[in-house]
UniProtKB/TrEMBL annotation:
Species lineage: Bacteria, Bacillati, Bacillota, Clostridia, Lachnospirales
Alphabetized Pfam families for the sequence: DUF6472 (PF20076)
Sequence ranges assigned to domain DUF6472 in this UniProt record: 4-60
Protein name in the entry: DUF6472 domain-containing protein
Length: 60
């Protein structure tokens, strides 16, 4: 059984400052996008755990 994913921890879930909201940056098909909007997007094939340390290293 696969573990559930949480978009809040995904590297592909980014904040859009211009629109003032978070969005998935992956190109989702219609069914995937509907599940994403309903917050029932479990076992996402695009989920990648965000690594804050890698982000900080790029900023240095």
């Amino acid at each position: 059984m696969s573990a559930k994913t949480n978009c809040d921890y995904c590297i592909n879930y980014a904040y859009d400052e211009e629109e003032d909201y978070y969005e998935c940056q992956m190109s989702l098909d219609e069914d995937e996008y509907a599940r994403f909007l309903k917050n029932s997007f479990t076992n996402c094939p695009y989920f990648r755990m965000g690594d804050e340390y890698k982000i900080v290293k790029k900023q240095m």
